Amino acid sequence: MERILDIILPAIPQTLVMVFASTAIALLIGMLLGVILTITRPGGLSESNSFYSFLDGLINILRSFPFVILMIVVFPLSRLIVGKSYGTAAMIIPLSISAAPFVARLMEGYFMQVDHGIIEAAESMGSTKKEIIFKVLIPEAMPMIVGAITMTIINVIGYSAMAGVMGGGGLGDVANRYGYQRNEPLILWSAVVVIIIFVQIVQFVGNKIADKIDKR
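Structure (tokenized):
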């Protein structure tokens, strides 16, 4: 048991760093893209069919990349930013790029569910586009945004396991190196249990926060 803890415990912070740093970056980029998609789409606050079509197509292309292939493609960028293409810090780059289009598409869908009458009312009272975005659109969608954050963290946890196999460290690396390559099933399943616990905690906390701020 002591040996298992010695192997598993150091991997936990590596996984947490990958997951939460990548999620934070993906949320910033994805939220921005989601807002831009929403306001430039046909009938939006700043309608621009050509720009919307371009951005919509770009996001679809990025979402089509399998994560393993995306990691390989992005390795040069990781090397440029971090100085190497392996390790926990380097894997934050492909994890962020992979999750951002997913977040953007979620945000666009949630923003489109906001009652258009509320937006029209804000426009009729002379609110600027910026005020509508930050005081109407985002606050009204906040319970759904919390759900998007929860789903993103859970997805990134899964991606981080694959990143670990590709040299990113963390629980994925432990599961591959000890559980698979050295045929130590106890360590493999210990890593799996820790990942499952992470997912359950994130889902529980996310649900609680969403329920608390949902005023409907």
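Residues 2-40 form the longest helix (39 residues). The chain is about 85% helix and 0% strand.
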